[in-house]
Amino acid sequence: MIKKFIKGHISKFLNLWQQELELKKEQANPIDSMLRNYLKENKALGSNDRKLFTDNVYKLVRHKVYLDTISPKPLSWEGRLDTIYTEKFATQRKNMSLLPHVRASCPKDLFDVLCDSFGEEKAIEICMAQNLRAPLTVRVNPIKISREELIQKWRDVNKFAIKPTEFSPYGITFTTDKNENLYELPEFKRGYFEIQDEASQLAAFKVKCQIGDHVLDYCAGAGGKSLAFAPYLKGTGQIYLHDTRDYILQEAKKRFNKAGIQNVQFHTQESLNNNKNKLVKKFDWVVCDVPCTGTGTLRRNPDLKYKFSRNRLKYFVDLQASVFKEALPFVKPKTGKIVYSTCSLLQEENIFQITKFCKEFNLEVVDGKHFQTTPGKDVEMDGFFCAVLQFKN
Ligand SMILES: C[S@@+](CC[C@H](N)C(=O)[O-])C[C@H]1O[C@@H](n2cnc3c(N)ncnc32)[C@H](O)[C@@H]1O
């Protein structure tokens, strides 16, 4: 039974979130930042209460479409919350008279485009998987410690329930849903690891840069991908991090310092433009980890599914094409490679884009086929897409 006091907070918070979404639509603040602010302002919620509060907020947001159909009317957050803890919540999933997008708890527009990409059966499986809690996964920084050493320390001293990731050689996944505060660990402060989903790690490792290479991370954000592939360079060559948001590069700078990586430089849009003549055709690798609908990360960001619209999809498709076109001149002719990646599941942002780029710019996909992960029954990773392209010679 959830205490009345916590139920009150859950309702209050979700009413605020709903208002925010109605008012600002796709510009609405992300739910995780709204949650952080709410918890800061409501110190009366103790640490156990916070976990219960947060877990239930996420559950309600994930299952809202389904709950709106099966909960008592008039709808309220309290009513939806009570419904989660009834038998009906499980049994109605099998009610085939409910529309598929309702059973899968996915807004209709998004469900339809997922069906276009995967067919209905797979789309339902993906949505169901995206309604589960995301696993907590970290990437070990091999410059500071090996995965084996960190696993041993965490198992023996911290008593964490963890396992090595199956595909990434540097990942560790937590196997319980206990909220470990990893940011407070000395190993985090010393740069031994970063929190990063396994699929994102695998996409980053597609940048197989070698000693002495020059790499331009064109949409670097806070540097998540670059931090993962930087150890391949063994301190040689140079990574250029670029983003249109100056403040996020400051964040990246701090993370690189902590990770002990020095062969990097940071470029705002202005500084890259000022140096453009020197930098075009210079890079062995250009990484285009473009802005996208984020439909592969709905377990972490379930609020994104309510921001989705076909217009928003078109906005991202156009933006991705223009970012790719901006980044391409920096690739070294003949040998240079450009890596295009998204955390989207949609063909419009992925395979359709690279097919178009190949035709328009005389490129071909190299290093095997493109790489794609889709959350599903046995796939614990986020949805990611990545392809390595090179000029046809
Ligand atoms: C998916 S995020 C990058 C995440 C980052 N690579 C990581 O692994 O943590 C996309 C980034 O593209 C940036 N961006 C948006 N428009 C851009 C543009 N025209 N040129 C370069 N970066 C852009 C955004 O500010 C955002 O940080």
From TrEMBL:
PANTHER family linked: CHROMOSOME UNDETERMINED SCAFFOLD_82, WHOLE GENOME SHOTGUN SEQUENCE, NOP2 YEAST -RELATED NOL1/NOP2/FMU SUN DOMAIN-CONTAINING
Organism listed in the record: Tetrahymena thermophila (strain SB210)
GO BP: maturation of LSU-rRNA; rRNA base methylation
Domain called SAM-dependent MTase RsmB/NOP-type: residue spans: 126-393
Active site annotation, chain numbering: 343 (nucleophile)
PROSITE patterns, sorted: SAM_MT_RSMB_NOP
Keywords, sorted A to Z: Methyltransferase, RNA-binding, S-adenosyl-L-methionine, Transferase
Superkingdom assignment: Eukaryota
GO CC terms: nucleolus
Binding site for S-adenosyl-L-methionine: 243, 289
Molecular function in Gene Ontology: RNA binding; rRNA (cytosine-C5-)-methyltransferase activity
Ranges in a coiled coil: none
Protein's name according to its UniProt entry: NOL1/NOP2/Sun family protein
The family this protein is said to belong to: Belongs to the class I-like SAM-binding methyltransferase superfamily. RsmB/NOP family.
Database matches in InterPro entries: MeTrfase_RsmB-F_NOP2_cat, MeTrfase_RsmB-F_NOP2_dom, RCMT, RsmB-like_ferredoxin, SAM-dependent_MTases_sf
